[in-house]
Amino acid sequence: MILEVGMVMAELEADARKLIDEQLTQAGWVIQDRDELNLKARLGVAVREFPLKTGEADYLLFVGGKAVGAVEAKKADTTLSGVAAQLDKYSTGLPTNLTPWHRPLPFLYATTGRLCSFMNGLDPRPDYRDLFSFHRPETLRQWMNDWQAGAGTLRSRLQTMPPVVTTGLWSAQVQAITGLEQSLAAGKPRALISMATGSGKTFTAINAVYRLLKDAKAQRVLFMVDRANLGDQAYKEFSNFQPSDSNLTFTKLYTTKHLNSNNLDPANQVFITTIQRLYSILSGEPELDPADEQQSLFAQDEQALVQPIREVRYNPALPIEFFDFIVIDESHRSIYTVWRQVLDYFDAFHIGLTATPSAHTLAFFKQNTVMNYTRAQAVADGVNVDEQVYCIRTRISGQGSRVDKVEADYYIDKRDRHTRVERQELMDDDLRYEASQLDRQVVAEDQIRTIIRTFKERLFVDLFPERSGNVVPKTLIFAKDDSHAEDIVRIVREEFNQGGNFCRKITYKVSGIDPQDLINQFRTDPDFRIAVTVDMIATGTDVKPIEILLLMRVVQSKQLFEQMQGRGTRVMRASDLRRVTSDAEEKNRFIFIDTVGIFERAKIEPKILDRQRSVGFEKLLEQLAMGDRADEVLSSLAARLARLNKKLTPTEHEQVHNISGGKTLTAISRALVDALDPEQQWQRACELGGSSTPSDEQLAAARAEMVEAAADLLAANPSLRKLLNQIHKRSEQVIDRLSRDDVVELGYTATSIEQALAKVESFEQFIAARRDQIVALQILYGQPYSQQRLTLAAVKELKALLEQPPLNLSLAALWGAYRVLDGDKVRPVSSQRAATDVVALVRHALQREGKLVPYGEVVADRYQRWLAQQRDDGRNFSLEQQQWLDLIAAHIAESLTTEPDDLDTGRFFDIGGQVKARQLFGLDLTPLLNELSLELVV
């Protein structure tokens, strides 16, 4: 028994040594026995079983002929946590006749061939860390040269970083960079920065990367993005970034490359890529299909636990030390499960950036969150805009529907969801479908149309009542899949009737157009108002002018949903917004329109083959199973199978192969076609009869045999029929053009009401508390107007105080809040909001039973009453005088007064200025201006 155990132990140790030898060799080391010692054989030499004063080192490492480190080899079942003491003896037990790079030996490895642990004794706090494999000799030489030149190690340089330069940074960004650098200085290998979408994560990361390259002397940094188009976006941000201490942009200072090929130039200092491409490079693939890095991994998170793990092997062209830092933007579940080995391969610090940390994310970063900046904080700081949630729920959306076959005249439309080719099918029974089948198996056109039409009708009534109604705010609609997106685009174009450029689809399946070009157009083109996507713009993509998100799909992933929300939160300058949305005063909120209740759940054969287009696929299979061998049945099935074969996924191809006994759908389809081919039947009849002139009976027998053999491939295999039906149902949609839909729920959600109430309460508490301190409030609370006159300066002072922290209340936000709470009492604003609207807001707060109307309308109404009174008093004005009075009243609406000097500015100047006014009104001009300023100002 003891002998057997010893033999097993010896085998384990031999296996470990074999693996270790392979790994050292892959990393560029030549392995020698002591009696074959030749330290000049290569830059890096690993000598087996080298004697030391304190024992025998399993491998002593030499670089350039000088000892630099040691390797302790352990059998495969050994844990490495207790090997440190033994390695310490090796590092101090060098014979005096050896010339090392450093005493004690700085670079120590413990490994079983499967697990590897490493310590750099030159670090300020030396400790062991896990590695995928060994470092290259060139790397250890570089580290020693840096040390001897006084540059220390990367970890020592991280401890002497200069203070963060705060110029151009939000306070939260300063905190994030500071927290990150403190974590790196403490030697923690992983750190997570969690910041709300739109709060500047990428800008923060670029600042941090700049400091790591400049001050910590990092060699290379990897910036990993979720999708290729986000790599383009990140590269632009690097290109535009100019550090406060330099006159050059980042990419002029440090070579930066967005990888669109699998070639890595070590001379570059910053690499931008996806994890898909990185894995492809590690796997030694010459290239990656660009389509493989177009889809967001967020969309794959729900399948992360059932996807195969991407396993990696050592690649000498991309050694483990190639990157010093890996910045992961966005961080989500599949990165840390399916793709984790790609990250673990590199001996690098990992820096995560996310707005939506999951449990997997937090676990990977060992709960080391160095910054947690929430959306609520970002809204409070003015970094994000707040949201309102508006509900449009329809009956079919919630309940599904039923199509009576008699009402439908026994026929229903069907469409291939991939080719979108339509056909009609005879109905066997009434069609009943659930809401969950919408836009997958069934397309209810009126359900989509009802939602879009309601959205259009309520757009400038409930959603943006302050807008002119001429420009639809930039709107992003989330569809279930590409087919659903096609339907939405068509119906939006029909309902809005604004031309083809008004609404466009942005998915991976837009033929002939780079999706990134479409995104750029959506960002800047004033005519492109509505974009429909599945998930291409759901994560990371920065389209700041978006003010409406319309959700027409259910999202299971909380992280993906929050990312989708983030497309609306981004702030932008009012002037930039007006370039694309001309009637927008500012972006003070975004509206999330919920149509699915998400907040409540928080080869092809010729067509002539298909002779029975009105018969369903399932019905054809059933007829075959029941013995129907009619030509039209076999022919139609052959055509359907040929089409279906084009749509199978690799997994489905494998399932068909296994269940059919090694057949493919192409083979089965071909067998059916051949069975109906007169030439094939003739040949078979000749074989059966042994004659070149078969009789009719022989031809019939040949046909029957061939048909039965072909049919049995399906008729005798119910499991295959069942599988094919399942696949076909996933591929084909029923189109319901008969069911009428109607809205069952409409309006702002309780969440939006609560948000509006909070804004209004903050405003009313503020004006009540400051009524004796702020001039405008003193007047508006009732101090006689004759004693103290309301001025534009006083109104602007009040407006500025409201917009400053801690209130952060813009006039638009307040107006919208009152609209949510008081409904029809609040009149939509039809023009740009003036500063004087603060007067109307205060008055409404004091007299909530009244209506809230724009201040300009109040002045206009009082002006008309004043004119009527003048006529009653026998005071008449000429047409030219009337035109001047109209302009004066409009000026008072914006400025609260009109002084004589004002008549030499703006429109007044264009029509003659003060000189002309005095010609028209004579000595009455000044008294008239005073009278109007008194009468029209509320």
Provide structural commentary.
It is a single chain. It is flat, with a radius of gyration of 38 Å. It folds into six domains: 2-152, tt1808, chain A, CATH 3.90.1570; 160-380, Rossmann fold, CATH 3.40.50.300; 386-395 and 441-600, Rossmann fold; 607-645 and 661-716, no CATH class; 749-853, no CATH class; 858-936. The protein contains 35 helices and 27 strands. The protein is of the alpha/beta class and 938 residues long. The longest helix is centred in the N-terminal third of the chain and has 25 residues, at 2-26. Helix 19 (617-625) crosses helix 20 (631-645). It is 42% helix and 15% strand. The model is unreliable at 1-9, 301-306 and 603-609 (pLDDT under 50). The strands form five sheets. A seven-stranded mixed beta sheet has the order 1-2-3-4-5-6-7, with helices on both faces. It starts with a helix and ends with a helix.
What's the rounded overall pLDDT mean?
Answer: 83
Could you estimate the helical fraction of the residues in percent? Answer: 40-55%
Radius of gyration: 38 Å
What is the strand arrangement across the widest sheet?
1-2-3-4-5-6-7
For the report, how would you describe the main beta sheet?
7 strands, mixed
* SSE class: alpha/beta
Total number of β-strand segments? 27
Strand content: 5-15%
Number of discrete helical segments = 35
- In the CATH hierarchy, what is the class of the largest domain? Alpha Beta
List the keywords.
alpha/beta, seven-stranded mixed sheet, tt1808, chain A, disordered N terminus, 6 domains, Rossmann fold, 35 helices, seven-stranded parallel sheet, flat
